[in-house]
Amino acid sequence: MTTLELHRQDLLPGAHLIGAEWRAAADGRELAVSDPATGKVFASVPDGNAADARAAVDAAAAAFPAWRATPAKQRAAILKRWNDLLLAHQEDLGRLISREQGKPLAEGRGEVAYAASYVEWFGEEATRANGDIIPAPVTGRRMLALKEPVGVVATITPWNFPAAMIARKIAPALAAGCTVVCKPAEDTPLTSLALVRLAQEAGVPAGVINIVTASRERTPEVVDVWLADSRVRKISFTGSTAVGKHLARHSADTLKKLSLELGGNAPFIVFDDADLDAAIDGVMAAKFRNGGQTCVSPNRIYVQEKVYDAFVARLGARVAALKVGPASDPASQIGPMINARAIAKIDQHVRDAIARGAHVITGGQRLQGPGYASDNYYAPTVLANVTDAMQCSCEETFGPVAPVTRFTSEEEVIAAANGTPFGLAAYFYSTDVRRIHRVTDALESGIVGVNEGALAAEAAPFGGVKESGYGREGSVHGLDDYLHTKYVCQGQL
């Protein structure tokens, strides 16, 4: 077994950062943090309220004029130092991610590298927020388009990638010259606090990053302060579509800029001309990473009838061999789910599918008893004979369940893939070049993986269409979402 204790205990500040001060909640209330592998509390953080949220905005607004005036090269240097510190503390941060989120330690370490890649990327992009000189239509005039930071940004991050999501939001904000108030997920606040501690060490000035932790019950109180405050000019949120719609509605009064990366229901299509071995590898990478708890995880697997039986048999064998256990066991490939609510939803989806005629190829039950120190484990599962009427096809399962549906024609599967309000990610496997172009164009999705199951990269735009949200993270487009364009027209030259 591997210890998940940290070498640097000061990476667990157990406090908000507001301005230059690490502090307790305004009323002293605390939020317990549990290890999903054991169900036991191992740390606590402040349970913030409206007073903490207002103090964070006050600090961010006060810091904004000096930070926006800081030369881009200096902001870039700070971000690059932050990147270096993340990589230097990869082991501690990986252990912390695995301890509070549950993912295997190899994935925890990998997430730290992934988070650092965004910090490095936007450190480089900070000096490239270029404007334009526009050819004037008349003599004696100069026309410019300048890029400026939007102002104070409120970021609200999810629990499934507690390092990567905070880096993907805060790094472009800082690169653009914005200041930040942040509310991390209540299940995984410790990683976010550790990243902010290292940002402070890297030289981020006081008030440029402010972080307020809060329980599920108190999160609306914190966020509503930011929604109502006209000094907060942008909201960046990753989470459910229902919450995203709430944020959009309540941002309308102050017309905030929004980046919303919301729910998904990703199709994974395997055509009969696909390389089946590659398709199986793609499903394993996309579906079972982080135990299926990813927004781009394939939720509906469609396989053409000619290769359906062979695909299901091979996938079942691969999934049955997965090792489930805590992150402290180096052999673990699937960790615990994040909490009891997650387990209940997964089990409900599987029970519903079985009741409606699905066939369990492997898995299909909770894992309890010796070797499982909590009730948060679920067996990696493959379901065959799944239909679009089942809950697992209509709702995002967010767990290690691979439901496989048979299809006949390209037209049929495109209609099924697009027959959802969501459009975050989609995948398909085919060796027919003409089909590749047709299907890519036809899929209603912000991200498409063609013969590839691992999609995300810091240089690529990440985001969805339809009810999966709008705005992009990563890439040059991700920096633009934190900038305004100011048109300047100078005459009498």
TrEMBL record:
Keywords from the named record: Oxidoreductase
Active-site residues, as the UniProt record annotates them: 261
A single MF term (Gene Ontology): glutarate-semialdehyde dehydrogenase (NADP+) activity
Pfam families per UniProt: Aldedh
Domain Aldehyde dehydrogenase residues, every copy: 22-488
Keyword Oxidoreductase recorded: yes
InterPro entries, sorted: Ald_DH/histidinol_DH, Ald_DH_C, Ald_DH_CS_GLU, Ald_DH_N, Aldehyde_DH_dom, Aldehyde_DH_Superfamily
EC number(s) recorded for this UniProt protein: 1.2.1.16, 1.2.1.20, 1.2.1.79
Family designation: Belongs to the aldehyde dehydrogenase family.
UniProt name for this protein: Succinate-semialdehyde dehydrogenase/glutarate-semialdehyde dehydrogenase
